[in-house]
Hints:
Blueprint: E1 4-9, H1 18-35, H2 39-46, E2 51-55, H3 58-68, H4 70-75, E3 78-79, E4 88-89, H5 93-103, H6 110-119, H7 127-139, H8 156-162, H9 164-183, E5 187-193, H10 195-209, E6 223-229, H11 236-239, E7 258-266, H12 277-280, H13 282-286, E8 292-298, E9 303-305, E10 312-314, H14 319-323, H15 326-336
Parallel strand pairs: 1-2, 1-5, 5-6, 6-7, 7-8
Antiparallel strand pairs: 3-4, 9-10
Protein name: Lecithin:cholesterol acyltransferase
Amino acid sequence: MAAKHIIVVHGRDIKPAGSELTALARQALARGLERTGKAATANKLKQGGIKFSSAYYGDINNEIEASFSKKTKALLTAQNDAAYTFKPCFPSAALKDAFKRTDAIKTFNLASYRQVLKIADDWRFLDEAADAASMFGSLLTFGLLNTLLIDTVKSDLTAYLTSQVVGSRVRQRLQDVLQPSMVAGDDICLITHSMGCMVAYDLFWKYSFRSEYESMRKPKKPVSLWVTLGCPLGELGVQRNLLDAPALEEEKYPRNQFLDWVNVYAEDDYIAHAERMRTAFAKMLARKFCRAISDKKIHNCWHYVDVKKGNLVSNPHDLYGYLMHQDTAGFVAQWAG
């Protein structure tokens, strides 16, 4: 029987140490499973009966973001794991506090989300949302064969899309975890968040077309379930800068790398502005490059104390808030059986 393996890929912005991120992501998903009534599956995940891995590139994010902002650099007061060259990272204490605050909510729904907005600043009107909109708009002006250097871009996400060096480094982190598992024939649930969705898409496309990955064109077992959270792949500016952007029409889209794609998007998630992947990638589905694409709207109730200003802030884009949601976990529970 194929081994069950969950692989989580985080998104953009500064991150805690790799081991801390993995532990928090596992804990969040376990709580989501408990919320959806799957305590046995949650226990199996906690006890190692379901393998759990993280494709971590947070050290790359941290280095890029710190180079652009002195204020951001000042937030990196913890030290990363020995495996990573760039050591400064975000302290996990603030994340654990936010986890506790959000986890106190029994069920995540519209009423819960509205209650959060009563006590926390609404993220929709903060600078980050405006920055995201500006970034996606700027990506539309980049050429399909853009060669901008890393020092000309404004964030880790745009660096990924416009720098061959950064893109390759980040994709390698996922490849190191995903490829051996696919070759072994594991039953894989790949969960990607935000920028991590682009990383997975690009890697799937490389496996589908690049000559050095010929052995991966027909994997022993495709990824069973790909879950995208807060996914920006529907944005035209992003699509124009993915690896398959300059490809001929008949060579676009990954093929036969995963069976089912479930896209979960939260109301007010500023990165998942173009929400429906079934519409954005209808051609891929029509050509039967995968079995199914579906979309699910949720309410992400994550809220935290801003370390700069000390005020409570709602962040409907947060990875852990997505993972601890009962609907997200419900899809994972169906896969786990």
